[in-house]
Design brief:
It is a single chain. The chain has about 200 residues and is of the alpha+beta class. It folds into two domains: about 1-75, Glutaredoxin (3-Layer(aba) Sandwich); about 85-200, Glutathione S-transferase Yfyf (Class Pi), Chain A, domain 2. The protein contains eight helices and four strands; from the N terminus they run βαβαββαααααα. The longest helix has about 35 residues, at about 85-120. The structure holds glutathione. Glutathione (GSH) binds near residues 10, 33, 50 and 63. The site of glutathione (GSH) has 11 residues, from α1.
Length: about 200
């Protein structure tokens, strides 16, 4: 299988986390989003012009969480995407939440504090930073409450839910994410950072 990727991409990171956990290796195709040639190559497989993209024979799949589920489904004996209907729905719920709420909140801050300068040369916009911080506080509050009584987001061990939600935290230090007031969230992040999947995919910075 081929994966169109970049190590700076948090959406790619969640796929790499799942693949590492499942023992899957890719033929990696690095995409530099600043290169017009790479963009053209990317748009041939994803009209959204976004990474990651998985190619498995004739089958092309984009959207990071869909790729994670596809990888798990194809791995006999895996436990990260449970077979039980309700447990699986619970994992799916956090994966959707990650893409809809947590990831975008972190994404606003990552853009303002890191990428904007690279791409546009402009400084962070205070109003946008305030919006990102407010959205992050709301999402972090939900995570903190949930993790106050459990070690992992679903069940007794790490699942795709944890890998999907945690990926944007690869920018926690660089973006100085204001998360000091969320001790359970931080303890959960430390647990994930201790996993081989995190350590073996920690190549970006
Ligand atoms: N919902 C998509 C988001 C993918 C995405 O936004 N990827 C970023 C990199 S982290 C990207 O390719 N951005 C390029 C662009 O928006 O032009 C997913 O989860 O795969």
């Amino acid at each position: 299988m081929q994966l169109y990727y970049n190590s700076y991409s948090s959406n790619t990171r969640r796929v790499l986390l799942a693949a590492e956990h499942l023992g899957i290796q890719f033929d990696l195709v690095e995409i530099n989003l600043a290169s017009q040639d790479d963009r053209r190559r990317l748009e041939e497989v994803n009209a959204n012009s976004k990474i990651p993209v998985l190619i498995d024979g004739d089958f092309v799949l984009w959207e990071s969480c869909a790729i994670m589920q596809y990888l798990a489904e194809g791995t006999p004996g895996q436990t990260v995407w449970p077979q039980d209907r309700q447990a699986r729905a619970d994992v799916n719920r956090w994966m959707f939440w990650s893409c809809q709420h947590f990831g975008p909140a972190v994404g606003v801050l990552t853009w303002e504090h890191i990428w904007k300068k690279f791409v546009t040369g402009q400084d962070p916009d205070a109003q946008e930073v305030a919006r990102g911080e407010a959205d992050l506080a709301e999402a972090a509050r939900v995570l903190e409450k949930h993790l106050s009584t459990r070690r992992w987001l679903v069940g007794d061990d790490v699942t795709l839910a944890d890998y999907a939600v945690v990926a944007p935290l690869m920018y926690k230090e660089k973006t100085r994410l204001p998360l000091d007031g969320y001790p359970h969230l931080l303890a959960w992040f430390e647990r994930i950072q201790a996993l081989p999947a995190w350590r073996n995919t920690d190549k970006a910075w």
